Amino acid sequence: MLREERMDFILNQLKSNPSVKLGALSEALKVSEFTVRRDIESLDKSGLLKKVRGGAIPHSPMAHSFKERIHVSEKDKLTIAEKALSLITPGSTIILDGGTTTFALAGLLNMPVIVITNNIPAANLLASKRNMEVIIVGGRILPESQVTAGTHAIRMLEQFHVDLCFMGVCSLHHEIGVSSKDYFECEIKRAMVNCSDKIVALTEHDKIGTAESFKICPIETLDTIITEIDPGNKIFAPYLKSDIQIL
Question: How far apart are CA 50 and CA 144, in angstroms?
Answer without folding.
Answer: 23
